[in-house]
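Recall the central idea of this unit: under ordinary conditions, the amino acid sequence of a chain determines the structure it adopts. In this exercise we apply that idea directly, starting from the sequence alone.
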Amino acid sequence: VIPILQSFHRALASATLASERVISCGEQRFGYLHLWSGTHPLFLETLKESIASARDKGLDGFVLDLRDGSGGAWWPYLDPFYADRSDFFEYSTRGTEGMSETVAAEPQTNQDAWLKPLAVIINSGTRSGKESLAFQFKKGNRATLFGTKTAGAFTSGRGVFADRDADYLLYLSVQELLLDGSVIEGVGVTPDVSVEDGPEGELPIIAALNHLGLGSGHEQQCSI
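Accordingly, the structure predicted from this sequence is:
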C-alpha cells in the first residue's frame, strides 16, 4: 500500500466527487451523493453540480448522504433543495452574559432547486455544520432522515475574520449555538427511520431508496 501525500479535506473533496452516481431501482432512477464535508467551496460546487445533473437527467429522487467526515456546511448547502430561504433556521448564540441577537439567512430564491423527493442519511459521525442541514431537513419535513442519531458535536465557537486583508482569524468561543431556539450540542438530530449502517454502510441507502420508490407509488425492493 502506497500512501498519498494529500490534505485531509482535499481527500474528502475527492471522495465526495467520486461518490456521485445514479442508482436504478425498477423503472425508477435515483441520484446519490455522499457529502463528506462542507469546509471548502469545492464541496458546495460538487453538490450543486450533482443536483443539476439529477435535474437534467430527469431522476425520480435523490439521496444525500451526510454520514461521517467533518462539518462546515451551512445555509448555502440547503439552497439546492429549497425554492427560497423563507423557512431556513435562524441561529443565535448563548454566551456567559446571555443570548446574542438572532441571525436569519439573507433572503434568496433558488430557481433551479431540486424539489422532487429527497432522502437524507445521517449517523453518529454526522457533526457540526452538517447537523444543521439534518435539523433543517427534518424541521420542515423536506426530507425523510434515515440512519442513527447525529453526534451532537455542534458548538465549538465562532470564527470571525477581523479584516478581509488580514492573515489571521479572531476566534470567539461561545457557550452554546442554538437553531430556532433548539439545542443541538449534546443532543443531536434523530432520524425519522432508524437504520444501522451495516457492514458496508449500505443498509440506510437501501432503506432510503425503497422509501423514495414507495413515495412515488412503486412498491419494489431496491439493492445497490
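Confidence is low (pLDDT under 50) at residues 158-162, 167-172.
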